[in-house]
Amino acid sequence: MNNLKDILYDSGITKVNGELNVVVQAIAFDSREVAADSLFIAIKGEKTDGHQFIDKAIVSGAIAIVCEVMPENIVEGITYVVVSSSSYALGIIASNFYDHPSNDINLVGVTGTNGKTTTVTLLHDLFTMLGYHVGLFSTVVNKIGNVEIPATHTTPDPIVLNKLLKEMVTAGCEYCFMEVSSHAISQHRISGLNFRVAGFSNITHEHLDYHKTFKAYIKAKKAFFDQLSSKATAIVNIDDVNGLVMTQNTSATVATFGLKNMADYKVKIVENSFNGLVLNINNKDVWTRLIGGFNAYNLILVYAIAIELGLDVLEVLTGISKLKSVEGRFEYMKSDKGIIAIVDYAHTPDALANVLSTIAAVRTKNEKVITVVGCGGDRDKTKRPLMAKIAAENSDKIILTSDNPRSENPDEIILDMKKGIPVERSARVMAISDRAEAIKVACALAEKGDILLVAGKGHEKYQEINGKRFPFDDLEILKETLKNLQK
Length: 487
Ligand SMILES: CC(=O)N[C@H]1[C@@H](OP(=O)(O)OP(=O)(O)OC[C@H]2O[C@@H](n3ccc(=O)[nH]c3=O)[C@H](O)[C@@H]2O)O[C@H](CO)[C@@H](O)[C@@H]1O[C@H](C)C(=O)N[C@@H](C)C(=O)N[C@H](CCC(=O)O)C(=O)O
Ligand SMILES: Nc1ncnc2c1ncn2[C@@H]1O[C@H](COP(=O)(O)OP(=O)(O)OP(=O)(O)O)[C@@H](O)[C@H]1O
Ligand SMILES: N[C@H](CCC[C@H](N)C(=O)O)C(=O)O
Ligand SMILES: [Mg+2]
What we know:
- With 487 residues, the protein is an alpha/beta fold.
- It has 3 domains: 2-97, MurE/MurF, N-terminal domain (Udp-n-acetylmuramoylalanyl-d-glutamate--2,6- Diaminopimelate Ligase, Chain: A, domain 1, 3-Layer(aba) Sandwich); 101-320, 3-Layer(aba) Sandwich (UDP-N-acetylmuramoyl-L-alanine:D-glutamate ligase), CATH 3.40.1190; 331-485, Mur ligase, C-terminal domain (Protein-Tyrosine Phosphatase, Chain A, Alpha-Beta Complex), CATH 3.90.190.
- 31% of the residues lie in helices and 24% in strands.
- The chain is built from 15 helices and 24 strands.
- An 11-stranded mixed sheet has the order 9-8-7-10-6-11-12-13-14-15-16, sandwiched between helices. It has a 6-stranded mixed sheet with strand order 17-18-22-19-20-21, with helices on both faces.
- Strand 3 (38-41), helix 2 and strand 4 (62-67) form a beta-alpha-beta unit.
- Helix 9 (293-308) runs antiparallel to helix 10 (313-320).
- The chain is globular, with a radius of gyration of 24 Å.
- Keywords: ATP-binding, Cell cycle, Cell division, Cell shape, Cell wall biogenesis/degradation, Cytoplasm, Ligase, Magnesium, Nucleotide-binding, Peptidoglycan synthesis.
- It catalyses: UDP-N-acetyl-alpha-D-muramoyl-L-alanyl-D-glutamate + meso-2,6-diaminopimelate + ATP = UDP-N-acetyl-alpha-D-muramoyl-L-alanyl-gamma-D-glutamyl-meso-2,6-diaminopimelate + ADP + phosphate + H(+).
- It is found in: Cytoplasm.
- ATP binds at residues 112-118.
- UDP-N-acetyl-alpha-D-muramoyl-L-alanyl-D-glutamate binds at residues 31, 154-155, 181, 187, 189.
């Protein structure tokens, strides 16, 4: 669709200056990406205001502008359209421009603090295994079938989202599983999308730098469910105290899942060990190689979504027992010397607590638990002492280190973390800001049978320091170090 008037349909227009019957070849919200005959959408952002770049966009070829405030300098021959919210309008415009691809695919969105990547990746793998063509948007990677497209965000901007959705439809994908981050909901990256199913995993402490209060964070997640259509199904975790809060104002049909409370989709943990989980779903025992009680929640959500989408119970349960774990999520190896090393993306207090309680539940004897953990720079500072406290209380030794320091001083981040260490636990805490060195020291400290947890970066293949990404891989460093220790 490229008539400006059609592209702007439903975008919340309050004022127009210029011709609406013009042909637009491309849409952009960043002046640096504007090409000839484009529509430029000016957005007030976190760091700067896109309205400042309107003239630059026109010089680069924009012929139409969507903005929240009519500029003082109007350029002759350019169409200016004022809308009540540019970021909301962008989602609608992107969807119109790409012919509403979300209407032509079964779009499933999963939100929550933890478990989004795991759930959508398992859904992608399950549906692919059962012979469907599937698309994926995740923190780790985006996929059209098995073709990988690098992911820059957990939930991409509306233009990338709709463009890739269109490509998925063209490639014959019947389903698309996507992560819906709270940033994406607040910034209206998902406005205009037609979700068939929406899942809620849980909500715990995270991103308070951005949302400011936990209440605002809950409200942001709830907004996803508020915007669902009456044809959609919302599936929420009933064991989370905010599970039903999500669906208070939704038009969607509501279904629940859980382990503890009465739920439409109920799961029981029969066995939980380093060999995987045995779950009881729908009165049938199913083994999975995924480890950890929290994965029972992820798997019952996978099951519930698959059943709501009309799949066969036995086919789904058989598929679940064949699923492999997700990269960087409780990824574990055993060295020849008998040291167990785990890489996990736990970067929130709740995730870290879950991973450490899983380790406590699955370890067989009184082996030592050695945890290497850091916190990201330019992110929620209030989680730093909490994560350090959880690590110290649940490990025999902890090494505080850097995650992605970004623009911050790693030693300052470690100092923030140290504030959470209970005095009686301080003797078991070391601080080594060089992450590679911290991992190596942890390996050297470990003895046969000990469990080494390297938390926070999971699948990430880089470390971001001062705006630059340097190659870095927790698992590689562990493998290399443990191999050398053997000699
Ligand atoms: C804080 C945040 O989320 N920022 C996102 C936001 O950018 P912004 O609105 O703040 O942009 P800005 O720099 O203030 O610029 C304002 C406007 O001016 C435009 N501009 C700017 C400069 C210029 O020369 N010309 C120009 O037109 C920009 O394109 C933008 O439209 O909108 C952009 C487009 O969608 C995002 O790329 C950007 O993500 C930044 C890079 C980011 O780091 N986001 C993270 C926090 C994030 O989104 N994370 C979540 C996952 C979180 C989780 O659940 O774990 C995610 O979904 O990835
Ligand atoms: N259902 C769950 N409940 C609590 N913790 C979980 C759950 N699933 C996974 N985790 C923990 O959280 C970490 C992150 O999991 P995952 O990547 O699936 O979450 P996410 O929601 O995609 O995170 P992000 O917001 O960074 O995209 C895992 O490495 C694990 O430690
Ligand atoms: N989506 C999260 C990922 C955090 C991962 C952790 N390794 C970090 O860099 O803080 C964020 O951008 O806040
Ligand atoms: Mg994710």
